[in-house]
Design brief:
globular; alpha+beta; 158 residues; 33% helix
């Protein structure tokens, strides 16, 4: 078991494009469906695996391009430390003042380490100024507890 880190920042309006953040339905629209429904299904099938937007279900980061992986760690504490570094870097830009508090950030990192030890995933999102959004995730891999059938995007670190 190992862990991959993902980070996305961008305009809140782009983050809100939920159709691109959810996997396509496993079955295509039935024969005779409206052409716009069929076209939208095809778009989601083509775009979901490659779009850089954070998926609604954290485990689906694993099917995204390997270039989106920001780090790979064998140890949960190392992955949680990376999360903590990212939180510390972005905290001054958090819109909510309470989220900027160093103790709050430390609690998030401690909680993440515990969850990762148990094989879970960690995902956090924060509103930034302008209005922008920050999504940080650490996904457990090989296998992922929520979706064990998903392949590892990069393999284990050495």
């Amino acid at each position: 078991m190992h862990h991959h880190g993902y980070l996305w920042t961008g305009p809140k309006q782009r983050f809100d494009q939920e159709a691109l953040r959810r996997p396509p339905h496993p079955e295509p629209p039935p024969t005779g469906s409206k052409p716009e429904l069929v076209q939208r299904y095809r778009e989601v099938v083509a775009e979901f695996p490659v779009v850089d937007l954070p998926p609604l279900e954290t485990a689906y980061w694993l099917i995204k391009p390997r270039t989106l992986v920001r780090g790979t760690w064998d140890e949960p504490k190392e992955a949680a430390a990376w999360l903590g570094e990212q939180l510390a870097e972005f905290a001054p830009r958090f819109v909510a003042e309470a989220q900027r508090d160093a103790m709050h950030v430390a609690r998030l990192v401690g909680s993440a380490a515990e969850r990762l030890v148990g094989g879970g995933d960690v995902s956090h999102g924060f509103y930034l100024e302008r209005p922008s959004y920050l999504s940080l995730s650490v996904v457990t891999c090989s296998p992922n507890r929520a979706l064990p059938e998903l392949p590892c995007p990069v393999g284990q670190s050495n």
